[in-house]
């Protein structure tokens, strides 16, 4: 703990004695360190594609100048590096918007069942391409919860996308919506959305850190899949804003289940 302690004598008018001020500097220092780490991470993530692009530009100006096949290949790579930078910037803007509004409660209600049906319809082609069969349960009818539709779409798209990217080898994706009567840390009933895959799973030691910005179990694999390392951080902040809960259960070799629990009402909070 970094503390600053100052001792000063009391003004004579107040009699004999002294004031002691103890200021805890550790929280402020920790926040500052996190901010520095974040800036360093962002710079690194942006620099990597930029360095690759600069290299290819030089090659195109020099050795590959008169080689049309090489030129096309390098332009394709530059295209995908530019797309990576775009994704990163879009995720950074999304994260910063979500964090800025995290203290405000969602003012609207959404139909959670319909929202999930729509997300699955949008992700259907990607699942099909990855050879993943989607099984859903409890998505019929209408389930009203307080929520921001755009943000909740983002949450479930990120989770389904992760299940396909990292858990797709299991060939199965389960999405279940169920009512929860009681949940620690949640006052009152809520609705749980479970997104489960039968992929390789995640070692327990990583689980507590998965929602940190830029934390990846396998950085190479994440980048190869087009990941920015910000998906679960965005999910966590949106769920916080909805006064909900996020749980990640996983077993190496057996698969991963991510559960988002949203309160049915925000009135009592
Ligand atoms: P990324 O952009 O790298 O996908 P995320 O924040 O969405 O970033 O996820 C962080 C890391 O958590 C991923 O890099 C991956 O290692 C791991 N992960 C997320 N979802 C799953 C899953 N369903 N199965 C296995 N690993 C996962």
TrEMBL record:
Organism domain of life: Bacteria
Catalysed reactions listed for this entry: ATP + protein L-histidine = ADP + protein N-phospho-L-histidine
Entry EC no(s): 2.7.13.3
The entry's keywords: Kinase, Membrane, Phosphoprotein, Transferase, Two-component regulatory system
Histidine kinase domain residues: 41-266
Keyword Ribonucleoprotein: no
The protein's name in its UniProt record: histidine kinase
């Amino acid at each position: 703990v970094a503390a600053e302690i100052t001792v000063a004598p009391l003004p004579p008018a107040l009699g004999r004695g002294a004031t002691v001020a103890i200021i805890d500097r550790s929280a402020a220092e920790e926040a500052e360190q996190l901010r520095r780490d974040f800036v360093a991470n962002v710079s690194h993530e942006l620099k990597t594609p930029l360095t690759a692009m600069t290299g290819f530009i030089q090659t195109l100006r020099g050795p590959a100048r008169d080689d049309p096949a090489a030129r096309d290949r390098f332009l394709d790579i530059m295209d995908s590096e530019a797309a990576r930078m775009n994704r990163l910037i879009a995720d950074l803007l999304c994260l910063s918007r979500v964090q800025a509004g995290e203290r405000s409660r969602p003012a609207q209600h959404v139909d959670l069942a319909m929202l999930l049906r729509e997300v699955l319809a949008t992700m259907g082609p990607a699942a099909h391409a990855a050879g993943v069969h989607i099984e859903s349960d409890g998505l019929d009818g209408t389930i009203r919860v307080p929520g921001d539709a755009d943000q909740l779409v983002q949450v479930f798209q990120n989770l389904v996308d992760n299940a396909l990217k990292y858990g797709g080898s299991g060939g199965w994706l389960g999405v279940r919506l169920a009512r929860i009567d009681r949940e620690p840390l949640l006052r009152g009933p809520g609705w749980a959305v479970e997104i489960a895959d039968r992929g390789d799973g995640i070692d327990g030691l990583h689980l507590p850190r998965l929602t940190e910005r830029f934390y990846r179990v396998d950085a190479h694999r994440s980048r190869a899949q087009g990941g920015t390392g910000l998906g679960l951080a965005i999910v966590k902040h949106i769920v916080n804003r909805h006064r909900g809960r996020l749980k990640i259960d996983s077993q190496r070799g057996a698969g991963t289940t991510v559960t988002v629990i949203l309160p049915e009402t925000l009135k009592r909070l």
